[in-house]
Amino acid sequence: MDNIEHLFLLTGILLCVSVLATLLSARSGIPILLIFLVIGMLAGESGPGGIEFESYSLAYSIGNLALAIILLDGGMRTRMTTFRVGLKPAISMATLGVLVTSGVTGLIAVYILDLSWLHGLLLGSIVGSTDAAAVFSLLSGRGMHLNERVGASLEIESGTNDPMAIFLTLTLIGLITGEMNGMGETLLFLLTQFGIGTIAGILGGLLLVQMIKRFELAPGLYPILVTGFGLTLFALTALLEGSGFLAVYLAGLVLGNSRLRDMESILPVLDGLAWLSQIGLFLVLGLLISPSEMWTMALPAILISLALIFIARPLAVLVSLVPFFRFTKRELGFISWVGLRGAVPIVLAIFPLMAGIPEGMMFFNVAFFVVLISLLVQGSTLPQIARLLKVEVPPELAPQRRAMLGIFQEDDFEMFLYTVSSESIDGVVVRNLTFPPHCRVAAVFRGEYLLPASGSTRLAMGDLLCVIGRSNHLKTLNNMFGGDLDAARSKARAFFGDFILDADALMADVAKMYGVDVDDSEAKLNLGEFMLTHSNGHPVVGDNFLRYGMAWTVADVDGDQVLKVGLREDETDKPD
């Protein structure tokens, strides 16, 4: 009984410390995943915790379980609209980019550690993929608002690049141990991993959506159903020799974009499970670390880590993006910097240990250092690098809170909460507001009092509005109520320029109004068409270029249609 109580006590303390450590991360800027890893090391046999844990097979099982839940949650929070601009470059980085990263890192490891070619390439494959947990956690939790092309490419890449890293790792282990022969068998393994993983993920996601639509369950049971289905899908796909990681990510993507009313109860629980998975995973990996053995590899491992950050990742980004897609130099620079390594390299480093490769422990220690240096160097500097390279855009106006009402199974009405904080609507009578169709103010809270939401109610600064509407009208509602509108417009002018014009304005008229000499070939175009001719592929908010002595910036889009354009004089310290 004492052992069970001690286990519960230790588990509870570690979880509480890990959760409270998020406050330290928020205030200090230290990546939270790095803090989880350090807590695990302190709890281990070489730290004050003194916990003896050497089961690599158990750590491998925990790692797969945790990563499956993290990818399921990440897929559910990835909007399908981001695939418009991010899918193709992300797939290129998730395949060709991982191959280049692994190859370059492996060749450097051969030289630094005096390994054979196969062993060096195996080490490169282990650390070759970016980590979904690290990317999702750091990009969403550091208050950054990246332009859609950069953010979507990074998120989709991190969710889809594990199959290539696993394929390379298992292939090289098979070649080293003699269990795999021939190029044909290798290519078949690759196609099987991606093909079965993709088909299983899409079909599994569609099946899960239908199950949620048809089964009337208690709200608290839906998250359990989704989690159980995701783990089942992961296992079945792996048994069919496909990529379980890719399957659960795609299933989450299908489910998250279905707009079911029950998502209101599913998402918060899955988010909590994803956090629990990250905490548990990094604590377990920290427990596995033996500092006495690790420090003997410190210098060569640090050199490999720096080579991965400053040589291999940038080369991979250049090879996988520059020949095929139109990214700016600043976007390429930021994508190169966000080659975050996390749990995946450490989990993959367990593969050689389980296969009985003599160099397995060395690979594990090097992988740990790669993760440590990546989180410390790259993870802690992301906001500064984003500002330096100017890949951020002004944050969009948004409600303080939103929740589905549960009236319709699909395309449900939602409740949006806003605080009146703009002088432009202070004192305005509700009936004088122009609402989108089927949108209404349902309640007005002033202090501790609930006011009637009648047409004669006069709004005042600080009022809390409960607005009923649908998500397709969210942009309009945000522009009406979403925060301090005057401050938002000021930030928009600072970023886009003093003049934000409708995209249907003719270039000839713009030229006359602002004294711009426009070529005859472009004078007949409207602003939207003009921006598309200079676009980096699909236009996104923040795309900009210099022409005719002016800086032209995309200020609003709807799909591939430019709606508004910011205009200002060319200055050397402005976006280019």
- Arithmetic mean pLDDT: 80
Structural class computed from helices and strand pairing: alpha+beta
Radius of gyration: 26 Å
Q: Count up the helices.
A: 24
Helix content: 55-70%
The main sheet comes to: 5 strands, antiparallel
% residues in beta strands:
5-15%
* Annotation, overall tally of beta strands: 9
Question: Segments where pLDDT lies below 50 for 5+ residues?
Answer: none
* Shape designation: globular
> Kindly, what is the distance between the CA atoms of the first and last residues, rounded to a whole number of angstroms?
67 Å
Strand order of the largest sheet: 1-2-5-3-4
Transmembrane segments: 6-25, 57-78, 90-112, 118-139, 187-209, 221-254, 266-289, 301-325, 332-354, 360-377
Main location: membrane
Keywords: Antiport, Cell inner membrane, Cell membrane, Ion transport, Membrane, Potassium, Potassium transport, Transmembrane, Transmembrane helix, Transport
Protein name: Potassium/proton antiporter
